[in-house]
């Protein structure tokens, strides 16, 4: 890394050492890409029209103006990483796709490992709407002739956007070792519910609904969506081309597909815990990937007792070898709050943190899920570790993070973090994605997502 801006030293866990440390490992950290099929019938955009009602907020967001342009933003980040100084690993900590669909997964693989993404917005809310005379379209449309409720809020007219975004996107891939772990959106419909037969039939069929079901007033919106998401399928169908590749995927297929695509850590038909948990060795650094998705659904996470026991054993081996351990998961500890089903074999943050804090080898925990840049010290009896949460690609500020880990002569571990945009040129689809994401976020949300200076370009120290 060649820092072109000062890094903020944070000495919450250890004093700043003198001199330059010996490099251990480097990686790019991305999260929450949400590569999505905007025309999928298995989406529920009409819920966004109820965003003002607090009852519906657990299911937001269902329509973002920038969502059709996500593949171009991801491709721009891939190009930037391929052109930068090489790292040991490119890591994405989940929600790599948006709606647990096979065509989304194939598009994600094409972007990161090389290939052609053919996802288009056709059939979605930004395509030509079924608009009655005098009706205001409730979704953003870039077309000037469409009277929507978004242009008056400053969203632009880009008449050729749908045509440009409907073209196949070819990516040479990142050209570096890479891996992913699953977030809630990778395995759950809209990141919240498992896909049932009714959803599958809608997903692969030839109708797309953008209107709300009539007289639909559930008391507990989130619980009903988890239990029976097919009740949320809308009305006002438009004819689209049926596509069997829109079918849902499950955990076994997710693992096998990643193994086949060349993602590090994954082996077809094999998992040490029955969940998507894996270990990647990067020299003296051991990267542990944890699956924090809850088996009964809902967007928040939990962890299994068998997973914690396995993690304890892995970290014990790293301790004994005098190595360094980094944990990566989609949900960070503060998002491990899912008690659905009240299963005694599912644990929340406290017992997991108790195990992690027993191991002096752990210096860092990487997570996503929250769509914000945050860096938090986690002090503990064995010296503690840093938790780094990286913001999303789909939302503002659409940035990735470079992590470099070094060891100083006194044993102190230094973790350098810098955040990076893709730098796509003005007028490109990736640049339009960023501009739309910025406006969609609003001033206060933008500030929260971007984090403070202490959450972005920093030097972190851990005593060992």
Structure explained in plain terms:
The chain is an alpha/beta fold. Helices cover 23% and strands 20% of the residues. It is built from eleven helices and 19 strands. Helix 1 packs parallel to helix 2. The longest helix has 17 residues, at 305-321. The two termini are 24 Å apart.
Please tag this protein with its features.
alpha/beta, globular, 6-stranded mixed beta sheet, 464 residues, 7-stranded mixed beta sheet
Short account of what is shown:
With 464 residues, the chain is of the alpha/beta class. The protein has helices at 70-83, 102-113, 161-165, 184-187, 197-203, 221-227, 251-261, 305-321, 349-356, 429-441, 443-450; strands spanning 8-10, 22-30, 89-92, 115-117, 169-171, 178-180, 207-211, 235-239, 278-282, 285-290, 303-304, 324-329, 346-347, 362-367, 374-378, 385-389, 400-407, 413-420, 458-462.
> Which stretches of 5+ consecutive residues score pLDDT under 50?
none
Counted by DSSP, the helix tally is: 11
Query: Average pLDDT, to the nearest integer?
Result: 95
Please report which band the strand proportion falls in: under 5%, 5-15%, 15-25%, 25-35%, 35-45% or over 45%.
15-25%
Reading the helices and strands in chain order gives EEHEHEHEEHHEHEHEEEHEEHEEEEEHHE
What is the 3D form? globular
Q: Which strand order do you get reading across the main beta sheet? A: 1-19-18-17-2-3-6
Percent helix among the residues? 10-25%
Q: Over the alpha carbons, how many angstroms does the gyration radius reach?
A: 22 Å
- Terminal residue distance: 24 Å
Quick one: biggest sheet? 7 strands, mixed
Number of strands: 19
| Structural class determined from secondary elements | alpha/beta
